[in-house]
Amino acid sequence: xxxxxxxxxxxxxxxxxxxxxxxxxxxxxxxxxxxxxxxxxxxxxxxxxxxxxxxxxxxxxxxxxxxxxxxxxxxxxxxxxxxxxxxxxxxxxxxxxxxxxxxxxxxxxxxxxxxxxxxxxxxxxxxxxxxxxxxxxxxxxxxxxxxxxxxxxxxxxxxxxxxxxxxxxxxxxxxxxxxxxxxxxxxxxx
Length: 190
Prior knowledge:
Layout: H1 12-15, H2 25-32, E1 58-61, E2 67-70, H3 81-104, H4 106-128, H5 130-150, H6 152-180
Antiparallel strand pairs: 1-2
């Protein structure tokens, strides 16, 4: 256990105490960063004045010689940098795609694949008569759908569904109007 009465060795921060018993905050920060504390206050370099204050940042000097800068509040708003970056990126991507196409002949290869696929599709169609079978199937289905539509039972069922939907729609409209319109105060006191 440590003896609380033992005096701790002096730190560089304690050596740089400012008159009045307060510590120099810059010395504290330097000690915390593991650096040497700043020497006595050196004259601050003068802030350079700019000829165009609306575009140049304001320079602020600290007594220890450190210079900070802040943008002016009346500076013009930045241009749409995002739009510019996207436009530049698009042109870079296009150029790279063209370069890859020239090196690897992608366009020519795709064209030959397209031709080969069309030829193979034609062969399969001739061999298995896919187009004719598809046409027959759609024609047959159209005829069956028309027969179902003409069936008296189907017509009756369709009419019943339409009537039910009309009744339900009317009921929903009435309930919506009841919610939308506040009730009147007919039974109020005189």
